[in-house]
Fold each of these.
Amino acid sequence: MKKLLTFFILIIVNNLFAQIPTLSGTVKVSINEGTIDCDLTLYDIPELKEYVILINSGFNLNVIRTDENEFNYPYSKKYDKDISEESFLYSISNEKGKLLPNKLRFIYSGKFPVKKDTTFLQGSKDWNGNIAFNGKSLRMAGATNWYPILYDIEMDKRYNEIKYNINIVCEDCKTLYVNGNPPLYSTNSNFKSDYPTDLLLFIGNYDFKEYNKIYYLNPDLTDDEIKNFSELVQKFKTYYSKNVKIPYEADYNFIQTTPTFKKNGGFLFVSYPTIANVGSGKYGLKSVVTYDYTKPLVAHELAHYYFGAGYRQFNSEIGNVIQESFSEYISAQAVKEILGQEIYDNKIANITSRFKKESDKIYKPISNIENYSDFGNYYAYAYNYFPTILLAIEKEVGQTKMFEWVNNLLITTANFTDFQFLKSTLEKTIGKKKADILTTKYLTSEKAIENALEKIKTLPNNGYK
Ligand SMILES: [Zn+2]
């Protein structure tokens, strides 16, 4: 009985605190025309006081409506770069003020540039929030807000991970892939998931291969390369499970696709449970899996399972930095063990060398970050500055304690994963006295980066003298 009671309490708690909306309806796409027509209903919407609904600004909204009352809601539309660069923010109100019904139907359409000819790629951009038609396929992750994404302003929570039951129709496609389901050779199919998922869509004219339940979409890899790469991925996952002490329960699929820009480079991003490589030629997935110096990028994306793409999402002003820097830190450790010291040293040199060139640049300590502009350069902050701080803290406390801190970051409940949370988990790991000393030196000091570089300068080959 007690067990049964606990079970019911768990269900109630789940419903109260983690109501996950479900998306249903139809998405029609033309790969050749670059058109997307959505008729989507979001239901089981949680009760939120302060909210907006994000929809990519490339779409023209026809209506937000309720079918029960055959009524189209009046809505307001705003733009706020700090909430989303890619989207307009919608909300519904009546004479009593803002309201959020439990179920809403959205009908909207958009036409996007199809960048199949390289002459149109010059000066063009691509990123994970881009609705990318490259002439062969459409790639759009949840980061694009192509489906209505509820955002809880008070709790700084995006409801991009949702349950779904949707139809995808694309007459000029050969293959359909919706994150959370295996790919399918079809032009019209229903996809369903009861597991909350970021709705990455990758549909178009491409083939796929499968190895040990891992799908490779549009692969530029031979069967042997797929086998070797799958085994490497397994090694990273085993390393993470053992050291983070939380089972790595994800089978990632891999996408290879070409970008909508023309520059020397490519990028990887994760939309759990998919890792996408966006690059062509020597920046294709084939290069990433062939050369030892690019394999750490895969280790980093896999580390995101714990930080931001699967196990836990972090919020507040420093949430993204926690996700990126700790992914960078634990992936560096995995690289050292699995790929060897030389590749590790090279990775650390890449992280720290920026400060040799920019010795006069001032970074605000992590305790003083209040908004996005406080980072100065967000990219440098997330991938160079804070990982360097973590490497210095490792020099003070050792790798075992660092992984204990990682575990505490992942299992300690908090509404906001802000600076107080970061500090309290460090205290929980190494005790208040030592945490106070390290906080003063590395987390609240204007000279944190100098202190960190001084501490780690004995690391071999780290690019800082
Ligand atoms: Zn990352």
Note: Residues 319-456 form a domain with the Neutral Protease; domain 2 fold (CATH 1.10.390).
Amino acid sequence: MIYECHVCKLEYLDEDTAKRCQEWCENHNSCNFLIAKQAINKEEMLKQSVTDERFKTLDETK
Ligand SMILES: [Zn+2]
């Protein structure tokens, strides 16, 4: 079973992490890298500019 964050479309193997990602995405309008790095499709999503922008935003918030 794969769980997807409906906001950023990252996919997770456990529902709990997917929910945390989705909550974060809805509240912060970006991805939490600590959550996103657990996504099973992150390599694929990083190639897509929309998600890439989100990851870039994270770097700037440090
Ligand atoms: Zn997300």
Note: The chain is about 55% helix and 5% strand.
